[in-house]
Amino acid sequence: MAAAETVEIAIVGAGVIGLATALRLAAEGREVLLVDPNEPGSGASFGNAGTIAEYACMPVGNPAVLRALPKLLLDPDSPFSLRWPALFQLTPWLVSFVRESLPAATRANALALAGLLAEALPAWEEMAQEADMADLLRRNGCLYLYRRESGFARAAGGRALRAGFGVHQEVLTPGEVAALEPSLPTTGASGLYFPDSMNVTDPKTLMRRLLDAGTARGVSVAQAAITGLQVEADGVRLSGSGLRIKANTVVIAAGAQSRALAMQVGDSIPLETERGYHLEFPTEAPLLNRPVCPVDLGFYMTPMTGRLRVAGTVELGGLAAPANPRRLALLDRGARQFFPSLGRSSSEWLGFRPSLPDSRPVIGRSCGSPRVFHAFGHGHLGLTLAPITARLVADLIAGRGDPDCLAPFAVGRFAA
Questions:
Q1: What domain of life (predicted)?
Q2: Largest Cα–Cα distance of the chain, in whole Å?
Q3: Disulfide check for 24: which of 71, 154, 308, 390 has CB 3.0–4.6 Å away?
């Protein structure tokens, strides 16, 4: 290409954060180009558990996890694991994670997340109407399952934090769990029910609708990998994969791939990769009425259109290694503890979550340039926080709102 394509706003990354942000900006009359090497919405935005979890203010790093961390990391079948060949690379992140798991840091991180999550459901309902997605959402709650009394006791701190932030949660007896989910085996498990949460019946279709709504409002899409980002006096030059773009404003929303791009504009962010997995099992009729999370196993079982998706666990270990068959086998064995007659899985998936030690995303203006904005690092909450993040980024670009309210999510917090 002889000259760079020019555009008002380029969004690097077409996951759910990028798609929602593009839709929001285009609805405000902005010229928007989405750039991603893959099909829009095909990464973690497609492969997640499909939960819109307004209750999930408890950070991944917390005192309960910290107490169990040595055992978790040494057990290859635990819900929280790492690839040992990546230990050297992960050590700085793990040190920060331990620090963020201390009680005072946990509370500060939970408070920040709770504030961001407070408007998640109404924001999703608004975006669902705008993008014609309401039929893909079910507001039927989510159930945490505690199969051991010791596990329920260890989770007391999380329940107390959520209660203090006004999260609607209900403790259920084993009988109430059975009434809510009669297909689950009778195990005497206690439950924690979040009655207001929503889930997605088909994430792939939802991503397609979100893309279609954006393109109908003028959003353009380029399938390319951006590897270069250079701030110039009159804009930001993006390059890669034979593509050259000159944008007045750039939004980095590339998920787990965002760290290298942020570094090129001068922002050093301790972003690591959680390798997430899912299996899907065809079902003639739904086996569950809502997402169910057996807390000790660390995954969700979510009823979706024509199938049950089993998704979750945490595996730290970067972007390059192939799928770990042991993690997929762990999901398979776990699902069969509840539904022994499941047939063979129809699909398996590995994707990458962008993970920060404090579980807070990075949302805000770059320290290196007023033309670059960050919107990544949402960890397990990308789907949940997409419309809120889109609104905040659009406000920042337009000079609206109070930037100080975003201080807990600013890139500058890592400079201390």
A1: Bacteria
A2: 69
A3: 390
CA distances to 3, 150, 191 from 176, in Å: 65, 19, 8
Rounded to an integer, the average pLDDT of 310-322 is 88
**SS3 assignment, position 200:** strand
Handedness of CA 157, 163, 167, 168 (dihedral sign): positive
The string of DSSP letters for 72-86 reads HHH-TTSSEEE-GGG
Distance CA 219, CA 166 (A): 38
Residues 146-152: contacts with CB under 8 Å, at least 24 apart: 146/189, 146/190, 146/191, 146/192, 146/295, 146/296, 147/187, 147/188, 147/189, 147/294, 147/296, 148/296, 149/190, 151/295, 151/296, 152/190
Give the separation between CA 212 and CA 19, rounded to whole angstroms.
Answer: 10
For helices 382-398 and 16-27, give the axis angle rounded to 10 degrees.
40
> What is the pTM assigned to this prediction?
0.95
Mean pLDDT across 109-123 = 95
pLDDT of 2 over the 80 cut: no
Please give the radius of gyration of the chain, using alpha carbons only, rounded to the nearest integer: 21
User: How far is it, in rounded angstroms, from Cα 228 to Cα 240?
Assistant: 6
CA–CA gap between residue 165 and residue 115 (Å, rounded): 9
Mean pLDDT of the chain: 93
Instruction: Match 């290196």 to its residue by tokens.
Output: 368
How does pLDDT run across 142-158, given as a tens digit for each residue? Answer: 999 999 998 899 899 89
What distance in Å separates the CA atoms of residue 222 and residue 192, rounded to the nearest whole number?
Answer: 44
Q: Residue 138: which residues within 8 A CB-CB, separation 6 or more? A: 198, 199, 200, 201, 290
Q: Which long-range contacts (CB under 8 A, 24 or more apart) does 356-359 make?
A: 356/269, 356/270, 356/271, 356/272, 357/61, 357/93, 357/96, 357/97, 357/99, 357/100, 357/270, 358/59, 358/61, 358/96, 358/100, 358/105, 358/109, 358/413, 359/59, 359/60, 359/61, 359/100, 359/109, 359/113
195 contacts 141 by C-beta, under 8 angstroms: yes
Other C-beta atoms lying within 10 Å of the C-beta of residue 69: 17
User: Is 328's pLDDT higher than 80?
Assistant: yes
Integer Cα distance of 75 and 87 in angstroms: 15
CA angle 30, 33, 37 (to 5 degrees): 160
Find out whether 101 and 65 touch, Cβ atoms under 8 Å.
yes
pLDDT at 1 > cutoff 70: no
Contact 392, 131 (CB under 8 A): no
Report the alpha-carbon distance of residue 171 to residue 71 in Å, rounded. Answer: 28
